[in-house]
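The records we work with from here on pair a chain with its fold. Here is one such record, which you should read through line by line:
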Amino acid sequence: MIPTQWFLLLSVGLLVIGILGVLLRRNVLVMLMSIELMLNAANINLVAFSQLWHAVTGQVFAVFVIADAAAEAVVGLALIVALFRNKETVNADEMDLLKW
């Protein structure tokens, strides 16, 4: 059986990669993928502690987070397609749609 600490280290690694992806990259698609990595890090924590405490609640919450991530991906990609049609770029620095 794999110790819980290994799952936590994997989760921390995914979280750090996700945070760096959001902060350092300017491509909106990469930023969305980084957010998905952070949500997967939370899922790994939920499932690891669910296994540690012999409870099913963490796994149930992980399923809800996966459903939320799917909805977020659909809405995010729709917004990216709409912005790309207007601005012809997916660079976050060049998206100043709300500025006058």
